[in-house]
Amino acid sequence: MKILVTGGAGYIGSVTVEQLVHTGAEVVVFDNLSLGHRAAVHPDATLVVGDLADRAAIDDVLATTKPDAVMHFAARSQVGESMREPFRYIGDNVTCGLNLIESMVEHGIGRFILSSTAALFGEPQTIPIDENERIVPGSPYGESKHMLERILAWTDKVHGMRYAALRYFNAAGASEQRGEHHDPETHLIPLVLQVAQGKREAITVFGDDYPTRDGTCIRDYIHIIDLAQAHILALGALDEGSRVYNLGNGEGFSVMEVIETARTVTGHPIPHTMGERRPGDPAALTADSRKIRAELQWTPRFPKLHDIVDSAWRWHQAFPSGYPE
Ligand code: UFG
After folding, report:
1. Which phi and psi (to 5°) does residue 47 adopt?
2. 187 CA distance to ligand 1 centroid (A)?
3. Does the CB atom of residue 196 touch ligand 1 within 6 A?
4. Which of 54, 94, 162, 315 could form a Cys-Cys staple with 238, CB 3.0–4.6 A?
5. Is position 245 annotated as part of the catalytic site?
6. Whose CA is nearest to atom 19 of ligand 1?
7. Closest ligand 1 atom to 285 CA
8. Residue 123 predicted with pLDDT over 90
9. Mean pLDDT of the chain
10. Is 42 helix (H, G, I), strand (E, B) or coil?
11. Alpha carbon distances (Å) from 215 to 155, 207, 254, 284
12. pLDDT digits over 232-253, tens only?
């Protein structure tokens, strides 16, 4: 099977490409390398440098490579940044996704996996969050992914495109060769590990007055390899129809608990300071993933926060400067 992976040079995309290559799939990565890294692309995948804003470039890659399916990771993905630049988030994520979907319809490619997000749920009514939770995005980022889910639902109805929308909770951890390298970094676990590496003096905790057990935000961290495996399982199930899944381990950890876990893993004291809330952050997000477990027999291999942080720590130690530019 041949799969086109947009954003395959980014964090989640590159690990999914690696896992796809391990299954024997033929993989073409389409990435503009604005946020991704050439070195993150598995050597057995073909990298096409191109931009989803450029409809002709998409037509070209689909016409020449003729993939059986597309996995779409390329997107802006930061909740906080989207609160500062809402039009850019909604504009870029929706326009680029729409370009891709339209071009796929024209080229007769009918299988699509969307990187969706827990940010669809804003402040949820029920925790853990299952697929029936009402959708009220908490940020322009979440809104952009909701719009793409709606576009896909119509593309299925009108054109018969089969899709899976995978709503990730907090992707974290690393494989042996691939991990998290953003510039600038904004995510909690890599930032905490930068303190342990001596690259930062302390981590700032964004708010300690949330209605949670210790006042800091609670998130459900999911290992990147478990996420990648979910994509592969979802692709295999598309012939039976389109579907949406919430993807997490079902257990929430507060910011302070993540820092404490990183202290245990690294043996470093990791000083922290208390800061202001970050706009757009919901208090608590944890997933009810029983649906994908039951329907696709998805079973996380690395459900423990300790193991997730440990894998990230091993990657950051092996690649202290991240990917070479
Ligand atoms: N946080 C801090 N200090 C920091 C960085 C983060 O306290 O320096 C806190 C945040 O406020 C949040 C938690 O750590 O409560 C996790 O923050 P991240 O930035 O690591 O991740 P987010 O929860 O904001 O977002 C991530 C992805 C989104 C996805 C979301 C789904 O980046 O794309 O998970 O839950 F939508």
Report:
1. -95, 125
2. 6
3. no
4. 162
5. no
6. 187
7. 35
8. no
9. 97
10. coil
11. 42, 7, 8, 10
12. 999 999 999 999 999 999 999 9
As a whole-number percent, the residues of the chain with pLDDT over 70 amount to: 100
What is the atom index within ligand 1 of the atom nearest the CA of 206? 7
SS (H, E, C) 165-185: EEEECEEECCCCCCCCCCCCC
Q: What separation in Å is there between the alpha carbon of 286 and the centre of ligand 1?
A: 13
Average pLDDT over residues 41-63: 98
Average pLDDT over residues 137-144: 96
Angle, in degrees to the nearest 10, between helices 255-266 and 188-196: 40
pLDDT at 228: 98
Instruction: Tell me if residue 255 falls in helix, strand or coil.
Output: helix
Q: Which of the four pLDDT bands, split at 50, 70 and 90, describes residue 112? A: very high
CB-facing half-sphere around the CA of 181: CA atoms within 13 A: 26
Closest CA to 22 of 275, 232, 193: 232
Token pair belonging to 89? 């988030």
Q: Ligand 1, from 206, 213, 272, 273: best to mutate by most atoms within 8 Å of Cβ?
A: 206
Q: Which of 141, 163, 168, 245 is catalytic?
A: 141
3-state SS track over 55-97 = HHHHHHHHHHHCCCEEEECCCCCCHHHHHHCHHHHHHHHHHHH
259 neighbors 203 (Cβ within 8 angstroms): yes
What's at 39, amino acid-wise? A
Residue 270 falls in which region: left (phi positive, over 0), alpha (psi -120 to 50) or beta = left
